[in-house]
Batch of 3 targets.
Target 1
Amino acid sequence: MKINKILIVEDEKPNADRLKRLLLKLRPNIQILSVEDSISSTVEWLNNNDAPDMIMLDVRLADGVSFEIFNKYQVRSPVIFTTAYDEYAVKAFKYNSVDYLLKPIEEDELESALQRYENFMETMPFFGTAIEGLLNYIQPKDYRKRFLLAHRDGYKTVLAEDILYFYTEHGISKAMLNTGTIETVPQTLEELDKQLDPKSFFRANRQFIIHIDAVKQVFNHFNGKLKLELIKNPEMEVIVSREKASALKSWIDY
């Protein structure tokens, strides 16, 4: 049985665009129903549309870990997870017979996954059981709680909860503490985005990762964008794209 209709859930536009290109190359006749970028928008889409033949689902989204979707909606469509999770999580996917693709997604691996689901489309009830098993076996990610930073002739520790936001300046990552102190951190924002708890930190744009307690006010901006005013530095403008605006509002309103 061929796959006709696919829902993509991916919060990084380059990854979503690559996935669309590969899918249409491998299955020119498929219909990509929508590309959603958050837990909240995905649940809303599922509640208002017929079930797709398949869901391509990123594990980590802007407003949390995508497994939360299954707590809010009874998913019956087969799911291919795309993930950068560790080996233990990958074993959990395998054990529960839920397919997965490690990023960056390769064409031959995607083709194998599509063939597998085409072969098993008639066993749809099986997938619901597999997802329940996955939720039981997957372990919460242990997010970074502190940083060891160079200080004078030694080191000092800074708790993640004491950091209001991270930003880049001349290619260097820096952290604004709730004391008003600025510290240099060795990680890139891309690395930090994977290490920080998404319930507390949000990747606002390429220059900023913000803590939820750092947001003083949110303003509407041009073309559906949002502008954030941060405590400790109200004159600094942080612009959130139209694509991420919905995820930001859901994150704050959680």
Target 2
Amino acid sequence: MMTSAVNRRPGYAMLIVLIGIIGTAFVSLNLGASRLNPLEVIQTLVGLGTAKSNLVLFEFRLPRIVLAILIGAGLAVAGAILQAVSENDLAEPGIIGINAGAGFGVVLYLLVANGSATGTLSMLQAFTMPFAAIVGALLAATCTYVLASRGGLSPIRLILIGVAVNAAFNALLIFIQMRLDDYGITAATVWLSGSIWVSNWTFVWTTLPWLLVLIPLAVYQAKKLDVMRLGELTAVGLGVALQRERKLFLGIAVILTGVCVAVGGGIAFVGLIGPHLARRFVGVAHRKLIPMSMLIGALLVLLADTLGKNLMDAKEIPVGLLIALLGAPYFIYLLMRAR
């Protein structure tokens, strides 16, 4: 009964999640190695802060919060698109190998550009790095779908092939890591487990334009995703150019994933959890599902990042590990239901 009521008023559900994002962001601004009380945060945000509070908020915490929101939004929308295109509610960028492919592209790019996977990036490298991630993500997605399509594309076949492709690209990543020094190996491992490794405005501006273009495009084309969910025969019968639209939406999902992995590492399960929770609140129509998935994904990553930075005083827990603690059992539950 509650779900039906929410489905009739999706705006209320979106508003609640949006308030959750704003509240979590405000709490995150207060917490950290250099703690600021709420009054100091408010004063700094309105231009009345000290030099120290301005540095802490505007140069360190705020860009990281914005990146966490962008990463969560992008990965959740990518997951919603992949689930519609593949007609498989278990599809998710991290599970079917796209995250690993993007990570491979980034680490290889950094190794070639800097001779290290942890070197400081120039402005040009920061803006070109997402392209390396997109190429890696596209390669992994192509491998998964080509192999899974042979003999008929079934939901379980897609997942199994995706797991294999994911393992293959992770093996390539390990091979690259063997060329790094001890510090490089440790840093690359932490990043690949899902860590927002860069927290400055340069990387916000390298990420934001992609999402501002691709997410509205996905919402604009949302009715075609609704038709795809009805099955191949129905979609063709309704006049949808299925192969062309699949390539378009797969391209959107792959690019979103690549850009997000470039700045956030291999954060998995956001693209699984976000759309599944969104369906419970707003139903299956993608015109509502995509924005709701975006908000839930943003809240999930932001909350995980806030907890990861503050649960342990001396060390930071990668975002991907915290989300995996929730996502892995949820994925197993869905897999068992799918039989």
Target 3
Amino acid sequence: MHPSEVLFQGKRQPLLLPACDHYAGSEKLMRKSMALQQELGPLFDITFDCEDGAAAGFEKEHAQLVAALINDEGNRFNRIGARVHDPRSTHFAADVAAIVGACANKLAYLVIPKVESLSDVTRVIEFVNRYAAPAGRASLPIHVLIETHGALRDAWDIAALPQVECLSFGIMDFVSAHYGAIPGSAMRTPGQFTHPLVVRAKLEVVAACHAHGKVPSHNVTTEIKDSAVVANDATRAAGEFGFTRMWSIHPDQIKPIIKAFTPRLSEVNEAANILTEAINANWGPISQHGRLHDRASYRYFWTVLQRAKLAGLALPDNAAALVNYATQPEAT
């Protein structure tokens, strides 16, 4: 049995996605992001943006461009998604028809902004599936932006939907929806990590995702010139709030985000050593350095290795062997 089968018997395995979700709107930036992904590999996802990326009056042409680029041979890893206009927009249906209808098989996911409720999301999924199912993609992953009062209220139920794989927190629209009751300083650091209403919203999104094995994605950092600010925000989002993914809005933000969400080599070595002993003990409890470990901690350390591999970290030999481990005849 594979270690994941041993460790997660009857339990939901956590979904893992690349730690960075890079947004690009104009054709120039979309092509630039594709070139960077080809250079670095599928260490980050790209989201082509129709909501904020389309020029007024050219929404149809922009959606067609997005579809063409996703179908392009430059989309080497099939890790490009798209954000469409919100479901109440007159452009929503045309976006879905143009993008999902043309490239459902190469589309990594579809991002839905400004939903107001669980029923909004279920209706969107039904509509998207009308275009995805004929292409053989009946379960196209859906990412939902939590940026309204209603969406936050229903976050747990939205995260429970099987087709939803990620909830993203939209801090700017969320703060704006309070019409001045939350100060604008809460859209950026340090306010975004200290204002009680924003903290509550982030924690609700994260808790809902982890309860249902989905991916919580942190909002953007609007500071694009100072990589230290980006790195600090990503580190706090991961370490203090439990996010496992974060948006990027500039190519210079990608590497700091990936680094912040990647386990340290010391963590990887610890995970490999503990799991190696666990295999030798047929997954029974062990003691290492005076500390007890059993399947509860084994699940944590197995996830550490998976996250490191997803981030492209060069794994030590014993960690690489564990990640590629295929059989364990003695395991039960």
